[in-house]
Prior knowledge:
The chain is α/β, with parallel strands linked by helices and 253 residues long. Helix content is 27%, strand content 21%. The protein has a nine-stranded mixed sheet, with helices on both faces. A hairpin with a 5-residue loop joins strand 12 and strand 13 (220-223). The longest helix has 16 residues, at 99-114. The chain is globular and about 50 Å long. It starts with 13 loop residues before the first strand and ends with a helix.
Amino acid sequence: xxxxxxxxxxxxxxxxxxxxxxxxxxxxxxxxxxxxxxxxxxxxxxxxxxxxxxxxxxxxxxxxxxxxxxxxxxxxxxxxxxxxxxxxxxxxxxxxxxxxxxxxxxxxxxxxxxxxxxxxxxxxxxxxxxxxxxxxxxxxxxxxxxxxxxxxxxxxxxxxxxxxxxxxxxxxxxxxxxxxxxxxxxxxxxxxxxxxxxxxxxxxxxxxxxxxxxxxxxxxxxxxxxxxxxxxxxxxxxxxxxxxxxxxxxxxx
Length: 253
């Protein structure tokens, strides 16, 4: 339930959501922005007002977006963060990159953090958060993490794949509860070295980092799974979005 003030629900904070981009659709000569509906549904259910942010390489446009939103949601997708962004070079197992998307999301995220605006990174968005804060990534879990379990599930993504341990004393524990939580898993990269003042807030049984948060900012949280896909199968996952929206409501001018 959204808390009420004087008998009415509080105004919904504007939440900017980054879409994916497809340039080679066989059914159209035009490129498409794409966004899975569960992202916006989760924002709405948690009390926010979602807005999709088309890409721009104009810093003034990025600032204008940030002037109009109170929270930034950076989504995932079937692509990898360019290794050059964290001082590495591509190795075997590295997937495709989407340079315009990563450049846009990086500019948005840096700008949001500079304003201490709440940031939530989902899957690839979590990986980007770690990189923006100075961390590095495993380019391919199967090749670089000895004994790693399968992190790219083949079954329905609305159902969980494996447990994670949510660590006590973290923002994530406040949102979801500490201890074991079942999550889905759709990634082949993962955080390796943590960025500056970044703490691990959840880890899978094989040691792969599953959630991070920054101690420098009021709310800069990343989760490796997709909570928005499991709101019916594991309802506790709405807690991630509720915590994010609550902070965005506080940030709203």
